[in-house]
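Hey, quick one: can you model this chain's 3D structure?
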Amino acid sequence: MAAGLVLAVSAAPRLPVAAPLGPPPPRTVVVGMADDMKFSPAMIAISPGDTVEWVVTGAVPHTVTDAPGKAALREHTTRPAGAAPWDSGLVEQGKRYRQVFRVRGTYTYVCLLHEASGMVGKLVVR
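Sure thing. Here's the predicted structure for all 126 residues.
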């Protein structure tokens, strides 16, 4: 009869199992509004729940709106179905306006004071 067989079992530590990745935490994207009468950047892409913050970086006040009927051209204020319109009112030098976006789709918005100068922006919520 053979001597008793000894099995060696490794006592390696167990590594924790990583939790599944969820959606990234909401973030804030800043869009500048300077005296050149442009949104900078003019187009942004964000995720649902992200915040966009428009900041007046020059001396000239601006607005940010996608409210229907306020812009000279209807196509400058669009939003996806189910999204509520928004309007910052007058935003003066050094001030900011924040808006959280939850509905996926494409939004176009305008500075009502400088629309004729081409101050139109676009954002996509993916």
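One thing worth noting: Strands lie at 28-33, 39-40, 43-46, 51-56, 96-100, 105-110, 120-125.
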